[in-house]
């Protein structure tokens, strides 16, 4: 089986796709990865054919950036689209870059001859490529995909279809015609809109068998709970967007300010906190005896031992925390982060911080650390995720789609 994989977005999107691509390769199937220039190195070491043909974040927002840089007033219809996250996602994921991507991908895809196209949940050029080739296509787990409204996507995507000579699709669910994949059970779905049921599978953990805490962290616990706080891969993308003049519509603080707020909040708690900046350069951090700051951490390993995970609310990090039974506090930055925080509250396994201030973050953390119910429900979620079928069953499911 020949599988064309398309991935856009942040590193979290790549991390969601990698286990599936690895499982397909291990089963003897041939993979062609089409992604962005920024994400290509994440795949290049494992897969022999990786093409950076998809647009990056700033390319997607190019029409908006052009308006902002010109000083012109944005048209009312654009402002209306950006009034909520679903409108923003629908606009971004169906903008003219989709046509450009289809024209770049289609010749490569024709030469490759895929039996199946596996797309990132918010990458819609693959849908049109699959329609042109007449092959099945499936969406993979994606936080952006969870807040993509099929109804709002239909008409602008039909404009893109017309531009590449494809007939319109009148069913909003056409982007899921051959199904979708998720990595949490249906009862923990983060989908914001009515979309078809997913084949839910258990993503493999990267925690080794000998999963002891690093010695420098274990020595400083002294009976205190461990709290892990990370800013995730999206923060560097947010910083790039801000530097380019594209303000985040969700009102999240600048990434460096968000890190300072996390350190200040955790310094007031009776815990040992580990804060990962994700490689983001941050100066002026407050000093605290109980807070360790690092560029990078072994997130899956620390989540296994943590009593609390403070996160920006990216879907991949949330899934990893659920798999380890770790409750969460979400301090949203952009995208679907706030939506994910509300879903965690609904499941009883996390809370959305009232604001991105040290006081609000500390209050949310204290509430979870003091209430055993969060930990009990998080353990239930862990059990539900561990009961899902593994990657071998997922591969068989994809093989059956092609065979059927």
Quickly list its features.
Rossmann fold; 404 residues; 5-stranded parallel beta sheet; Erythromycin biosynthesis protein CIII-like C-terminal domain-containing protein; alpha/beta; UDP_glycos_trans_CS
Describe the structure.
The chain has 404 residues and is of the alpha/beta class. It contains 19 helices and 13 strands. Strands 10-9-8-11-12-13 form a 6-stranded parallel beta sheet, with helices on both faces. Strands 3-2-1-4-5 form a 5-stranded parallel beta sheet, sandwiched between helices. Strand 1, helix 1 and strand 2 form a beta-alpha-beta unit. The chain is globular and about 65 Å long. GO terms for molecular function: hexosyltransferase activity; UDP-glycosyltransferase activity.
